[in-house]
Amino acid sequence: MASVHQFVGAPDTTGEGGDTPRLPVEVINLTWVFTHYVTSWAFEEGEWLPLLTRLSFRKGLNGQPEDGDTTMPEAHCAKKGGQVIKPGSPKLGMFKNYRTKIPAYKSDTGTPGDYFGTMWDRWSVVGRKPRNKFDFKGFRDFRSHLVDNGVIEPITRQVAETIIETMEANVSNLKIQPNSPARAERIAAFEKQIEAMSASLDSIEEIFEEEEKVAPTPKASVRTRKLGKPAVEES
């Protein structure tokens, strides 16, 4: 005898966020991890801090297969010189759970799901308008922690000098533009920043690449026979 299945429908709360308060967002169910590239740094409050980007995980994105395995996108990032900073690493300490998950729904369709944010997000919703009061100080402490605990190698002198040179070029471009109070303020701020960045170079280790060792070329020698006649040269 064929089995009989009964289905009881639940109330359709799509668009209302359901009984659970949900955050209205543009994108749902998109996981990610922080990454860092060796040339991405910023000088903030007298300290060189790494600039972080996000590597997003989605089926079909960056070579990610349908089974959700993130090995391919992570390898793709590493190939481009990026360092993947995975949540849960013991070196992250109090920041190991930096990625968070919030019940959410798509603001345009009402589809429920999850929003993956950071531990420094401070979301509130008035009506249907979300607002994030981001904890910038806490995030800056996290970036400093990454360097202090060896998750990210400190900035090198070469990279710092390149960043300073770029800022100096920006100042030169500003100086040839028409005068204005706003332009003068920007130039003064940049020059003060350049001065502080340049002063920090004394505390940054300079990394030299080891020169490739070349095997010495053997000198030719001459063999002589008993009668003193030269034989063939050998190397």
Task: Describe this protein's structure.
The strands form four sheets. The chain has a three-stranded mixed sheet with strand order 1-5-6, with no helix packed on it. The protein has a three-stranded antiparallel sheet with strand order 3-2-4. Strands 7-8 form a two-stranded antiparallel sheet. It has 235 residues and is α+β, with helices and mostly antiparallel strands. A hairpin with a 2-residue loop joins strand 7 and strand 8. The protein contains four helices and ten strands; from the N terminus they run βββαβββββαααββ. The protein is extended, with a radius of gyration of 30 Å.
Tag the structure with descriptive keywords.
27% strand; 235 residues; 10 strands; 4 helices; three-stranded mixed sheet; three-stranded antiparallel sheet
